[in-house]
Structures are given as structure tokens and as C-alpha cells.
């Protein structure tokens, strides 16, 4: 057990645990936001675990999640566009908190890794994670015309 | 297709190939000749797909 694994446990337990609760309960607009946040929080946890176990190859899991998580949310945004149009989700503070957590974790890992190709990979994962989730969150709240056409 | 459009298409695919090949090199754990060869090959296929996707979305 080291600090990285401890931080990953905290993110998984408090963050992903809370999103599982959010997905399982409450109105639709809360569930879709929680679904979006679940990947936004699981990805930093996987990055922290990769560093904690000193296995850089595990970063690939976070990379795949950072890419496919927002794509999954976009599918939900499109399929549920009708239901969400009347009661759009508003979770700006939560989305920004999750994006800030992701950016903070990536920055901390970049400092720990030092200048190398691994740092570039972390930066790509960070951009995909933060950018993807902000985009997906915007699509959920009806900010993108394309998501409404479905 | 005239000469200018052909040249533009080749430049675009080459740009995609260079960018995607660089991304491959960032993602692999160890850079060796085999990885370079495989990366160059898949980046070429992905570059063609990227141009196709860009044209499908942009419509030109």
C-alpha cells in the first residue's frame, strides 16, 4: 500500500461508489449525469492504480476508458434525447469537479513520471478524459444540436 | 479529379499518417524496428479511414 493506491481507493470508494448510487436511484436526469461521471472518476482511479503498482502498461485501461466513456454517454444522450429535452440535466459543478479531479491526477502523475514518452501518453489520456467528459456533459444538457435529432 | 485535388488528397493522407504514427509511437512501451514497421502500416490504414471520416462529416 502506498499513497497512489490509497488515493485510488478513495476515488473508487467515494467517487465511483457515489456514481453507482446515483445511477441506481433517482430521476433519469440524475442517472445519466451519474453514468457520465462514473467513467470520469474510474479513469483517474485506474491511472493512480497503474502508478501505485508501478505497471505503466495498466495506463492503457485508463486510455480505453477515457475514449469509450464519453462515447457511451453520447449514445445515451442520443437515445434519451426525447426524455431529456423536457427535463435537461444540470450538473455543471459536479462535471467541473470531476474534470478538475482528472486534470489534477494527470498533473500529479506527470510530475511523478518526469519528462518521457510516458508523460506524453498521460497528457493524451488527460486531454481525452477532460475534453471527452466536458463534451459528453454538454451533449446531455442539450447543448449540442446533433444529439437532439435522434 | 484534377492534379491539384490529387495533390491535396495525398498531402492530407500524409499529414494524418504522420500524426497517427506519432501517436502510435507515444503509446507503445518499447520503440523497436518491429513497432516502427507495424505502426507505419496501421497508421497508413488509419490515415485513409480518417480522411474518409473527415469527408463524410464535413461533406467535401
From TrEMBL, chain A:
Keywords: Cell membrane, Membrane, Transmembrane, Transmembrane helix
Keyword Isomerase: no
Membrane-spanning ranges: 32-50, 57-81, 93-112, 119-140
Record flagged with keyword Transmembrane helix: yes
Compartments, as annotated in UniProt: Cell membrane
Membrane-protein topology: Multi-pass membrane protein
Pfam family, one: MrpF_PhaF
Protein name from the UniProt record: Monovalent cation/H+ antiporter complex subunit F
Organism the protein comes from: Streptomyces viridiviolaceus
Organismal lineage: Bacteria, Bacillati, Actinomycetota, Actinomycetes, Kitasatosporales
From TrEMBL, chain B:
Record keywords, A-Z: Membrane, Transmembrane, Transmembrane helix
Source species, domain of life: Bacteria
UniProt entry tagged with the keyword Transmembrane: yes
Transmembrane segments: 7-30, 36-53
Annotated protein name in UniProt: Uncharacterized protein
Source organism: Streptomyces viridiviolaceus
Amino acid at each position: 500500500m502506498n499513497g497512489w493506491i490509497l488515493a485510488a481507493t478513495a476515488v473508487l470508494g467515494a467517487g465511483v461508489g457515489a456514481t453507482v448510487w446515483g445511477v441506481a436511484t433517482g430521476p433519469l436526469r440524475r442517472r445519466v449525469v451519474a453514468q457520465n461521471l462514473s467513467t470520469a472518476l474510474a479513469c483517474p482511479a485506474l491511472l493512480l492504480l497503474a502508478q501505485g503498482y508501478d505497471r505503466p502498461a495498466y495506463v492503457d485501461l485508463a486510455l480505453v476508458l477515457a475514449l469509450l466513456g464519453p462515447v457511451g454517454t453520447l449514445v445515451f444522450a442520443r437515445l434519451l434525447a426525447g426524455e431529456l429535452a423536457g427535463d435537461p440535466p444540470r450538473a455543471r459543478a459536479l462535471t467541473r469537479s470531476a474534470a478538475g479531479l482528472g486534470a489534477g491526477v494527470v498533473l500529479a502523475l506527470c510530475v511523478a513520471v518526469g519528462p518521457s514518452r510516458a508523460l506524453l501518453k498521460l497528457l493524451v489520456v488527460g486531454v481525452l478524459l477532460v475534453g471527452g467528459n466536458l463534451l459528453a456533459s454538454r451533449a446531455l444538457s442539450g447543448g449540442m444540436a446533433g444529439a437532439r435529432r435522434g | 479529379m484534377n492534379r491539384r485535388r490529387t495533390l491535396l488528397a495525398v498531402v492530407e493522407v500524409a499529414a494524418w499518417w504522420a500524426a497517427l504514427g506519432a501517436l502510435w509511437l507515444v503509446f507503445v512501451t518499447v520503440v523497436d524496428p518491429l513497432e516502427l514497421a507495424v505502426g507505419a502500416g496501421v497508421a497508413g490504414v488509419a490515415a485513409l479511414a480518417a480522411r474518409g471520416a473527415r469527408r463524410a462529416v464535413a461533406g467535401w
